[in-house]
Amino acid sequence: MLVVGEAFNIGDALFYAVLFIILMWLVKIVAWKPVTKMMQDRSDKIANDIDTAEKSRTEALELAKQRKEALVNSQAEANEIISKAQQTGDKRRESIINDANLDAKTIKENAEKDIAQQKRDALASTKDDVADLSIEIASKIIQKNLDANDQKTLIDSYIKGLDSHESN
Amino acid sequence: MDQTRTFQFCGLTFNVGNMISGLIVAAIVLGFVYFCSRKIQMKPTGKQNLLEYMIDFTNGIVKSTMPSGATKDYGLWAFTLFFFILVSNQLGLFLHIEVGGIVYVKSPTADPIVAMSFALMSMLIAQFSSVQKLGYKGHFETYLQPIPYLLPINLMEEFTNFLTLGIRVYGNIFAGELLAGLIAKMAFSHGIATLAISAPLEMAWMAFSVFIGCIQAYVFVTLSCVYVSQKLSIEE
């Protein structure tokens, strides 16, 4: 009943071996290859997605950091610009004041020079007038025409004496 | 044993019942994977999920027994073997065709020839893997390990592995079908009374047989993988 050897047909064994091999081949073509390939692709894709997510996260962090830095930098720059502007303003103001002072000084000096010159001119003309007058007066008094040129030298020396007398 | 119809071809004996059953099983397995593997997508839907789960399951058997990296080489074999044995174990429970006392369709694995054929296939694959890894000289030297006079023991182990692997699945499935047949005979022996008793009994036994069939298919594939990995993991 349960004797194995009694009914062991090599034919059946061969038939099943061939059947199994053919079935395996067909399963491979029909399902195994495409499905395992798809599974592999999927796992690759998931791995890639994880990598890309990680990458984009780090990129976002990097960008945020850069933005922060840029913000800080721009603030510093703005401060710098303002202080620079203030400095240049101060400089300008000082230079303007200096220029004005200088101008005023030169104007004053010129004015003084002019005044001195005018004084000198006025003195010179008075000298002449006084000389003429005194000569006239003298000639009127003496009733005698003096040689005007001779007299002039005399009077000049006299007036020089006056001048030095005045300045002392 | 039931009567069988056999014929001779090229001096070999062929059993018609076994051949028909085997073809039916192969057709079922192939049809199922064909049906499940249409329109494969990156985002799997129901059918594809089922197929992928099954592939993962058999790959898991291979991964848990064999050295790493063997899934690529033995995954397809484990997958086909598991589902062929599984369907073979269940076929006779749902489809048992007898014509004139001759069985034409039953579980192929309820026949010792078929069960032993599969066991022999697994053992041959194990031997082949060993030869592939170590070469013929290295392979036959493994029978002299750890000491030469253990050669007969090693050969005996090889043989008993083959024997137990085949007979385990055959015995379970054969017993399941036998008892199912006996209960069926009892049901129709004394009219309505035995029928009332036998019907729930038969249902319970059928459910148990389905369970046993699944377990046996799993055990068969696991042990086949273990035998192969034993050969693969021999250290020089």
Automatic annotation (TrEMBL), chain A:
Subunit structure: F-type ATPases have 2 components, F(1) - the catalytic core - and F(0) - the membrane proton channel. F(1) has five subunits: alpha(3), beta(3), gamma(1), delta(1), epsilon(1). F(0) has three main subunits: a(1), b(2) and c(10-14). The alpha and beta chains form an alternating ring which encloses part of the gamma chain. F(1) is attached to F(0) by a central stalk formed by the gamma and epsilon chains, while a peripheral stalk is formed by the delta and b chains.
Coiled coil ranges: 101-128
Top-level taxon of the source organism: Bacteria
Role this protein plays: F(1)F(0) ATP synthase produces ATP from ADP in the presence of a proton or sodium gradient. F-type ATPases consist of two structural domains, F(1) containing the extramembraneous catalytic core and F(0) containing the membrane proton channel, linked together by a central stalk and a peripheral stalk. During catalysis, ATP synthesis in the catalytic domain of F(1) is coupled via a rotary mechanism of the central stalk subunits to proton translocation.
InterPro entries according to UniProt: ATP_synth_B-like_membr_sf (IPR028987), ATP_synth_b/b'su_bac/chlpt (IPR002146), ATP_synth_F0_bsu_bac (IPR005864), ATP_synthase_B_chain (IPR050059)
Subcellular location: Cell membrane; Endomembrane system
Keyword Coiled coil: yes
Name recorded for this polypeptide: ATP synthase subunit b
GO cellular component labels: endomembrane system; plasma membrane; proton-transporting ATP synthase complex
A single MF term (Gene Ontology): proton-transporting ATP synthase activity, rotational mechanism
Major location category of this protein: membrane
Alphabetized UniProt keyword annotations: ATP synthesis, Cell membrane, CF(0), Coiled coil, Hydrogen ion transport, Ion transport, Membrane, Transmembrane, Transmembrane helix, Transport
Residue intervals passing through the bilayer: 13-32
Family affiliation: Belongs to the ATPase B chain family.
Membrane topology: Single-pass membrane protein
The encoding gene: atpF
PANTHER family: ATP SYNTHASE SUBUNIT B, ATP SYNTHASE SUBUNIT B', CHLOROPLASTIC
Automatic annotation (TrEMBL), chain B:
CDD domains (alphabetical): ATP-synt_Fo_a_6
Record localization: Cell membrane; Membrane
Annotated transmembrane regions: 12-35, 74-93, 113-131, 178-199, 205-228
Pfam families: ATP-synt_A
Membrane topology: Multi-pass membrane protein
Main localization of the protein described in the UniProt heading: membrane
Keywords annotated in UniProt: ATP synthesis, Cell membrane, CF(0), Hydrogen ion transport, Ion transport, Membrane, Transmembrane, Transmembrane helix, Transport
Classification via PANTHER family: ATP SYNTHASE SUBUNIT A, CHLOROPLASTIC (PTHR42823)
General function of this protein: Key component of the proton channel; it plays a direct role in the translocation of protons across the membrane.
Cited HAMAP family: ATP_synth_a_bact
Family indicated by similarity: Belongs to the ATPase A chain family.
Protein name: ATP synthase subunit a
Organism encoding this protein: Fructilactobacillus carniphilus
